[in-house]
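Let's practice the habit of predicting before peeking. Look at the sequence and jot down your guess about where helices and strands might fall. Then scroll down.
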Amino acid sequence: MALFRRRYTAPGAAPGTLSEGPAGAVVQVICHSFDLETWQRSEPTAVADVVALRDPKKTLWIEVQGLGDGSWVQELGAALGIHPLAVSDMHNVGQRPKVDPYDNGIFVVLRHLIARRDEPLEWQQVSMFLGGDFVLSVQEGPSEVLRPIEQRISEGRQLIRSNGPDYLLSCLIDAVVDAYFPILETWGVHLEWLEDQVLEGHHEGLLEQLYRTRRNLATLHRAALPMRSALDRMTQDDTLGFTSLTRLHLRDAADHANQVVDVDSSYRDLSTSLIDVHLSILGQRTNESMRLLTVIATVFILLTFFVGLYGMNFDTSQPWNMPELHSPYGYPLFLLFCFVVASTLMYVFYRLGWLGRHRGPN
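Done guessing? Here is the structure:
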């Protein structure tokens, strides 16, 4: 996945301008209109059908999956009275997780992470706008992250059916935040496996896996850290007008976001440590190989000297010019001498701990 991904307009474009999206892309709209006693689910095909569902006595959740070319979101935003800057941030994905208050509502941007086996971690933008009697959620693409909230509504849970749109917003935020925990659990198990591989000395493709894990954790960090800041602001800003119940549940979601950031930070530290340990083990093995080669070279340097010395063309008729060459035992004695020299050097290196794992006398 690209290090930086954002759908943006041309430099100098007016604020609130929507970037060009893919033509013909599918946009699915699901509406839930409910109160304590009733619940209606529909899939309108026109913006007018969505507006007709508004009822001051009921909560309306408008769920949009997919962005298309932006026309649907733009028309829907205009019909609901959403500020053009908020509408452009919904469509121009890649926004930093944040919370922006407007005169007629509150705009929230979060990131939903998608983990697939043996693939880089990906994210999708989830935008939410809280109006007087509705909540609009816009997801970059098809996703099941908000499906538990629909299930709670359809089952008639009293808490979510009777506490208005601001409580619904807190439930949607909590669902996105809680979706981080399964990913963290998966990466925790993966890091434990990588740790065992490093300590057991397995090195085939291990550095690449460690680096990919470190990069995925960095992607998670870039999504979770600003999300924590946004949720902290929502719990501390009294001007946002949340009820005490909603603020209580937002505080719980903020606590979950803090846990996500803390666990991710510890995972990133562990992955960095594993990379350092892995490189240290590789360096140690290289040093051991170089030490063995040094021992072999040292032994053979002396043997090469002796062999080269006896390979010189001395006049053997002179009494001091290698008289041992005329001895019938000269060759075996020379070989025995070379063996003794090599054995002595090997024993010295062994005592020094350069061969095997000898630690010397206790």
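How did you do? The mean pLDDT is 85.
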